Amino acid sequence: MKNYSKLSLFILFLVAVLVFACNQISDKNAKETILKGSTTIYVDETLAPIIEDQVAVFENEYNAKVTLVAKSESETVNSLFKEKAAIAILSRNLSAEELKIFKQRKINPKITVFATDAVAFISNKSNKDSLVALKDIISFMQGKPVTSIKGLVFDNLNSSTLRYMNSLAGIKAIPEKGVFSFKSNDEVIKYVSENDGMIGVVGVNWLSQPIPAMQKYVDDVTTLSVKGLKGDNYYIPSQNNIAEGKYPLARDLYIINCQGFSGLGMGFASFVAGDVGQRIILKSGLLPVRIPTRKFTIIGKDQNDKK
Predict the structure, then answer these.
(1) Do domains 32-116+252-288 and 117-251 have the same CATH topology?
(2) Would 269 disulfide with which of 112, 143, 243, 258, CB 3.0-4.6 Å?
(3) How many CB atoms lie within 10 A of CB 4?
(4) Which segment of the chain is annotated as a signal peptide (predicted)?
């Protein structure tokens, strides 16, 4: 009888432990859904302004808290591999090798393309020449002398803009002379606004949506028109030129979601790719992946006469 009593107590204890564990798991999952809870998103700092706008509206509409961490492109990608973050926003897709690493971890990243950005070249307002040929920029980065370029200024040695331009130039390291880097796009804009002859390389969103403290520096720089490697025409990085494929330095933007469950990563990606998010993209000066629809109310003649 005593053994039966002990067995009953053990079974009751085991059931209680299992119920408690299930409740803990349930509580943990309940903290975050696609539209509520909190999460951290790492973002390529070149894209920070537009993502800050998206997060502000998303948090206002839903019971969600998103902490943005703006880092260089390489740091943002590494945050995924080191599991510091499960959501990242980049100006490039994951490579085949990177996807293979996630596959080995039994993770299938959800990738959402949400806009097209552009790399812009800027010069001091006093510079009378507002045109630049991409082949000259590439030659300068390859260490060849180009009389029309005094120097190139990038935001960060690990940035997406430098990686992008290195790829175009077919180089792995920048030349020892003539190419400089700071820590942010704001620093590049400020430096170029105060120094003649330098060409800054920045994300176009930093020019279309500067913070108030940066407006005076943005006003003192000129966005250069660029001639691509094919053709003889020069184009500025406008929405229309990007949409028509005329501007030669356009790049798609991606949300990489490695959460592995239906959390805020899924909800935020759907929001950014949805109607409201795409309207924010359109207003920012970037090109949305789909043009938001516009609704018109047509007033008939009879209704008009009644007014």
Answers:
(1) yes
(2) 112
(3) 8
(4) 1-21
- Other beta carbons within 10 angstroms of residue 226's beta carbon come to 24
Listed in order, strand segments (DSSP E) in the chain are 36-44, 63-71, 87-90, 110-124, 131-133, 151-154, 179-181, 198-203, 221-223, 225-227, 234-235, 250-257, 287-288
Domain 32-116+252-288 fold is D-Maltodextrin-Binding Protein; domain 2 (3.40.190)
pTM of the entire predicted model = 0.82
Please give the residue that has the higher pLDDT: either 4 or 181: 181
Q: Looking up tokens 């067995």, which residue turns up?
A: 7
Cβ(284)–Cβ(53) under 8 Å?
A: yes
- The structure tokens listed for 275 are 């109607």
Closest residue by Cα to residue 124 from 72, 227, 196, 178: 196
Would you identify the CATH topology of the domain 117-251? D-Maltodextrin-Binding Protein; domain 2 (3.40.190)
